[in-house]
Structure formats: structure tokens, C-alpha cells
Amino acid sequence: MRVLICDDLSPKAVEVFGQYGIVPEICLGMDEDTLVEKAADADALIVRSATRITRRVIESAAKLKVVGRAGVGVDNVDCAAATEAGVVVMNTPTGNTTTTGELAIALMVSLARHIPRADREVRAGIWKKKALTGAQLTGKTFGVVGLGRIGRVVAERGVGLAMNVVAYDPYFSSAESSPVPGVKLVELDELLAMSDFVTLHVPLMDATRGLISKERIAAMKPGARLINAARGGLVDEPAVAEALESGHLAGAAFDVLSEEPPPPGHPLLGRDDVVLTPHIGASSTEAQVQVALDIAHQIARFLLEGRADNAINAPAVSAGDLAFLGPYLNLAERMGSFLAQRCKGPVRKLEVTYLGELEGRDVRAVSLALLAGALSHGTDSGVNFVNAPALAEERGLRLLEGHESDAGAYQSQIKVRASTKGGEESYLVAGTVFGKRPRFIRVDDLHLDFPPEGHVLVTSHDDVPGVVGRIGTLLGESGVNIRRIELGKARRNRDDQKAGAVGYLAIDADPGTELLGRIADLDFMREVSLVRLGEATPVSGDRS
């Protein structure tokens, strides 16, 4: 049994493997070509954040059973490719929670009191106290974006500092009670407008990339300070530099950047009103040891016992079952993601029906994929197959399962209806798998054939001539290509005064807020939204 440790890991991990009779091989600093060669006969790969486990690596590793990430984020692992190949992906979601949360607080304090600058100046023989007048934390409004594990640690610490803590999380309505005592839930725009300090604790994905945009920075409270110890790419960094230069923002602190390390000339380098650290959120002695211990135990138990703790893409199912269910896992995850983004409020009920050849299968894994997809937007909790049920219960999300033998014209079909609190909103999507690739075959009353991937414009508009041409013109003028279009009649309700239609446009890039606004302003448009789904998944051969 060959276990390959690809990134620097605490030596205690080796000791743990020894307890199970496994001797891991340590190979650090590999490029993709070397990794492909080394992983060819590996049963398990273990990484932190430096090594990327690409589709090429996975497809070339014929014996690979599991990839372990010592940490939370799995941005560096192609989870879709792993799922298709029947390879389990695991992380360690709790090992660095406290450490990362504490760093966010440390960055806030450093920013408020100019501590890095003060240290530099004293060492340089400069003693100018007046220029280092800072801000008191007590009584200030502290805005926490994201109330997952880390966000909750930060919010609790903020309450302990006698700050007025407000929080935004898309899975909690502002009208609901906060899961953290002493913290008030608000909408994101309200949080930005009222907060003296704003800290980010959300994952990086399509829905959160560029979350703190130039427009949102402009909407922040004048003199506010911004902290990002979550993921690079959440913030428009040049826009932050502009806001600092104009005086609109008083300071910023980043442990993560869009490009790491930052290139020379990065707009945040060299500014005294910015605190920068080299992605050390998880870099405490305690956290480093804990994630190493966690992943070593998890990998050993999986290889020896088949136990899949903290699996991102599968519960405890056999590799054979996972190979069959893999495409359906991808389909279900994207169905959940689609429905969560379509609903304006938090999803409270998912009703899933398995039809055709799925009827007699153990589809618990597929249901968990559906849950994980629905829960994954706007959380830093590291949603996976293990914790999805607990998170669903915590957020008041119910999952109901049904089975039917007749899948109509298809061999199999998954049908899901999502509802918000009190059934105020309800959306339906049905899907199937063609050649291992997921397809949506119905959305509400519209029957279609649509690959759920990339960026999708969802429109509700008057049923009049010229709709596609005018939308296409706006997109084309901005260099955004349309890959696929599905149009149909909209479902009617009592308030409709004239016939309506719906459209699903697969586009090659994120159109941005400004372009979306121009599309929304078209005279025939009733509503337009952008849904971000997973990357395209090329068909790969069967895996033995």
C-alpha cells in the first residue's frame, strides 16, 4: 500500500501511519509531470495547499483510491475528476478553525493600532506617536461575512471585545435568530454600510469570486477597515488600493491575495495603511500538528477499513458503487447548487425523487451530494458528505426522498423540488446522465437539454420578438460568448397580465454587475440572474 505525502506535513503524521503499519513516502516540491510519474501506482495522495491534484494526475493514477487535504479548502484538488474516477477526496475541516479565526482578530487589532508600522518605525529610530493614533475596538461595529466554523469563532471573539457584531450569511435570513449569541443578522449591503471593520469568512467559488467588488467597496462606511483571512480572489484588490488612496477606506489587512506571492508592483504593497501576512491563517504549531494527525488517521482508516471520514465527494461507499454513482453525484450537487441560487431566500425543503435504474440503488450518497450543493453557497464550513446532514439540520433544511420505477424516455432521472420557508418560493429541476455527463432535462415547466456547467443567465421576460438578439448584442459588445440557449414559456400565475417566457443562456464568462444591470434594464425583461455552476467536466474513459 503506497501513500505519497506531497507537501510539508508535521512528522507526527508519519508516526500515526506507523501505528497502522503504513510507511508513507515523502516527495516534496513536485511539478505536475513528476507527480504524474510518482502517483502512477499510489493508493493515496496527501497534500496541503502547494501541490495541485489535477485531472491529469488523477486519470494517470490507476490505483489511486483517496486524496487527503490537510486543511479545509480543496481548491487545489479537481474534485469533479476525482468523483468521476471513483477517488474519494477528504479534508480536515476542524483542525485549523480556531487558529484562522484568531489571526483575523489579530489582523484587525494590528490594523486598528498601526502595530506593524509602529514596529518598523521604532526599529528605524522614528518615534512619532501622534502619526500612529489608532482606533478603539470597543463599541465599534464589526461586520462578519460568513458564519461557518471560522466566522463563528471570529464573531464570538468580537462579542468578547465588546464590539457591536453584525453578520451576513446567505443561509440565514436577517429575520431569523443568529446562531451566535449577541450577533445580529443583517443583509450584506446593510453590513457594509454600517460596519467599522469588515472581515470575510467565506469560501472561494464562482458565487463569491469578487464578492467585495469596486461597487461594494464604494458602498462601505467611510473610514471602514477591511480584513480578508479567508481566500484570495474574494476582493477586488486594485479597488481596495483606490479606496485607500482616496481616503474612503482607512485600512486593509490581508492574509490571502489573488496571486501568491504578490508580484512586484501589486497595488497593496508599500502602503502603510495595509497589513499583509503570507497566508499564515492555519500556521500555528497546534493547527499544523492537528491537521497532520487528522489526515493521517483518516487516510489509514479508509485504506484499511473503508471508513470515509470528512469525505468531500462520498460517504462510506465502495469504490465500485462510487464509480457508478460518480456522474450522478456531480449531477445532484449541481442541481442543489442551481436551486439554492435560484431561490431568493434560504432553502428550507428539498424533495428528491429517484426514477428508473436509480430506484433500486443505494442513493444515500446522491442525496448527500444534493444537500452539499444546496448548502455550499456562502459558507466557510467546508461542506462535505459527512457534515452536510448536521449543517442542514442546523439551518432548518429538510430532505425528503421518493422512488419511482418509470423514468419516462430516460434510463434514469433525478427530480428535485426546492422550497423556501412556508413554500413562498418553489422551483423544480430534473436531470439525468448522458455518457457520464450531467444534463438538466427540465426546469419548472420547461423541458430542455442543458449541461449544468459554467455561468448561466436565467431570464424571465415578455414573450416578444427580438429578445435573444438584444441580449446577445449586449453580451457580444462586452466580449461574452453565448454557448447554448434554451427558451420556453414561463409558468403562469394569477398576477401575470401577459404571456411570459424564460431563458437559460450558457455563457463563457461572468458578465459582471454592470452588464447584468444593462440586461435587466431592457424593456422586455422582467428578471435576470446569474447562476454559477461547476466547471465543465470532459468525458473520461471508464476506470478499472
DSSP helix count? 16
Portion of residues in helices? 25-40%
Number of strands: 22
Major sheet: arrangement of strands: 8-7-6-9-10-11-12
Any idea of the CATH class of the largest domain? Alpha Beta
Distance between the first and last residues' Cα: 18 Å
Instruction: Estimate what percentage of residues fall within beta strands.
Output: 15-25%
- Low-pLDDT segments, ≥5 res: 536-544
What is the annotated CATH architecture of the largest domain? 3-Layer(aba) Sandwich
The structural class is: alpha/beta
Largest sheet, strands/sense/barrel: 7 strands, parallel
Overall pLDDT: 88
CATH superfamily of the largest domain: NAD(P)-binding Rossmann-like Domain
Q: What general form does the structure show?
A: globular
Question: What is the C-alpha radius of gyration, as a whole number of Å?
Answer: 24 Å
| CATH topology term of the largest domain | Rossmann fold
Q: How many structurally independent domains?
A: 4
How would you concisely characterize the structure shown here?
By secondary structure, this protein is an alpha/beta fold. It is 31% helix and 23% strand.
Report on the architecture of this protein.
The protein has 544 residues and is of the alpha/beta class. The chain folds into four domains: 1-93 and 285-313, 3-Layer(aba) Sandwich (Rossmann fold), CATH 3.40.50; 97-276, Rossmann fold; 316-452, 2-Layer Sandwich (60s Ribosomal Protein L30, Chain: A), CATH 3.30.1330; 453-544, Alpha-Beta Plaits. Helix content is 31%, strand content 23%. The strands form four sheets. Strands 8-7-6-9-10-11-12 form a seven-stranded parallel beta sheet, sandwiched between helices. The chain is globular and about 80 Å long.
